[in-house]
Amino acid sequence: MNRSDVLIIGAGPTGLVLALWLSKLGIAVRIIDKTSEPGTTSRALAVQARTLELYRQLDLSDTVVQNGHKVAAANFWVKGEPVARLPLSSIGEGLTPYAFLEMYPQDEHERLLIDRLEAGFGITVERNTELHSFEQTGDGVTARLRLPDGQEETCQACYLAGCDGARSIVRKTLDTGFPGGTYQQIFYVADVQARGPTFNGELHVDLDEADFLAVFPLAGEGRARLIGTVRDERADRAETLQFEDISHRAIEHLKVQIDKVNWFSTYRVHHRVADHFRTGRAFLLGDAAHVHSPAGGQGMNTGIGDAINLAWKLAAVLTGGASAKLLDSYETERIAFARRLVATTDRVFSFVTAEGRIADVLRTRVAPFLIPKMTSLEAAREFLFRTVSQTTLNYRGMPLSEGVAGHVHGGDRLPWAHDGEGDNFEPLKDPTWQVHVYGDTSDEMIAWCTEHHLPLQVFDWRPAFEAAGLARNGFYLLRPDTYVAIADYSADPKVIERYFREREIRPFFG
Ligand SMILES: Cc1cc2nc3c(=O)[nH]c(=O)nc-3n(C[C@H](O)[C@H](O)[C@H](O)COP(=O)(O)OP(=O)(O)OC[C@H]3O[C@@H](n4cnc5c(N)ncnc54)[C@H](O)[C@@H]3O)c2cc1C
């Protein structure tokens, strides 16, 4: 019988990234999808800075940046006039190598991931292959697949990853609840070829009416994505709506002259988080685990984050580098973020689409006044960037996180520090455990790391490290996904030894 280490259900961005990471770590994966070909529509556009940072481990960041579009600014419009402009081209300067807002349509993104999977690891997505059912046994999962020729195949895997989207059969089979709700408004998305002042490569948002409309620039002259809401009785017949049926009030406010509609679709947005992200040997990731409004461009990025969080843990357990207890941390770390995200995107979405006099006044009078004031403050811009880019996402206070040194806590993303002499993210390209020291360390630490083949990076102390909040002469133990496991002021390797022992982690060093 066909047996793989990990059987991945679904070849959307989440499943593809999981397959890439596991393959890079030497794990045998099988990835199936019930569709005959990858998606051909643009869907999620924003690739957040944190995703790009983590994509360095797969050598993907440069290609995404080169092929995508950097958004220079976000503009807010009221009554047909631009009222506020937020420059974005270097909004996160000094915080990350990817200090901008990157647009890269999901269909192109998926094709890139598929190409890398095939070229780099010889793995092909098995198309027209559908998960029918599965059950867990003591030491694995037995799954029944429906193959392209209509036959059924029974296969086995050590673990099963449900990356099968919002209607996940994996989630339904596990009988995991998916509490939350569905917004009353219908979203429409349209990829268009058009003209007008809003087709200048920048992002434009109409604050006027509750008919929310945003124009997202795409790479290429005159190409953009319109995202808007449909309300009233038309929302009841969303499936049959055409572009001509939607309200053109907001489109006219933004002075958009449409030449061609390349793709139009409507969809209903839900806000839900699964009760559990793991049941035994089966996991839920991406839209199968959480769905929310597209406000802030977080959905796809969060699925990719789930995949990266789970991949190194599965690899460690499958190669004997950790006990299965490590897998518990997947749900703890990711469900907390998903719940916060759903709550935040819900507030933003409710604000931009709220109806009534007070909502109109807030959007058309108060917001245009407040947005320029807030965005003129560096601290406000930094807060906005850190939140949206997912660079503040952290696992503080959770079981794999320990200590604090400088401004950095166990569980944080390692802050980026760079100057003319170098960049502390360079060694992170290797998805392994590693120790960073900024300044000096003890002979014991050097000897212990050498003996255990644990990569140790000692950076000569420089002002850039202090500015980034790193502690001098302490150490940071980093996980394979580059989050800080231990932040400690000492130079004592026993702290690392105890950390691994208590968590039953036996990293395979080198
Ligand atoms: C019209 C539209 C517009 C969107 N716009 C945005 C946006 O602007 N911004 C944003 O952040 N997000 C947007 N999204 C959401 C975004 O596309 C998702 O968050 C993202 O695709 C989630 O990725 P995923 O890999 O988790 O799931 P999916 O992309 O849904 O992939 C799941 C895969 O699993 C496969 N599958 C399902 N069941 C089975 C089975 N039983 N057996 C085998 N295969 C199976 C499916 O065929 C699919 O390929 C949009 C979505 C849609 C539909």
Structural features, described:
This protein has helices at about 15-25, 50-55, 60-65, 105-120, 170-175, 250-255, 300-320, 330-355, 355-375, 380-390, 445-450, 465, 495-500, and strands at about 5-10, 30, 45, 70, 75-80, 80-85, 100-105, 130-135, 140-145, 150-160, 180-195, 205, 215, 225-230, 255-275, 280, 280-285, 290, 400-405, 410, 420, 420-425, 435-440, 455-460, 475-480, 485-490. The protein is globular and about 70 Å long. With about 500 residues, it is an alpha+beta fold. The two termini are about 35 Å apart. The chain folds into 3 domains: about 1-65 and about 105-175 and about 275-345, FAD/NAD(P)-binding domain; about 70-100 and about 180-270 and about 360-395, D-Amino Acid Oxidase, Chain A, domain 2, CATH 3.30.9.10; about 400-500, 3-Layer(aba) Sandwich (Glutaredoxin), CATH 3.40.30.120. Helix 1 packs parallel to helix 4. It has an 8-stranded mixed sheet. Strands 1, 2, 8, 9, 10, 16 and 17 form a 7-stranded mixed sheet that branches. Flavin-adenine dinucleotide binds near residues 14, 15, 106, 165 and 297.
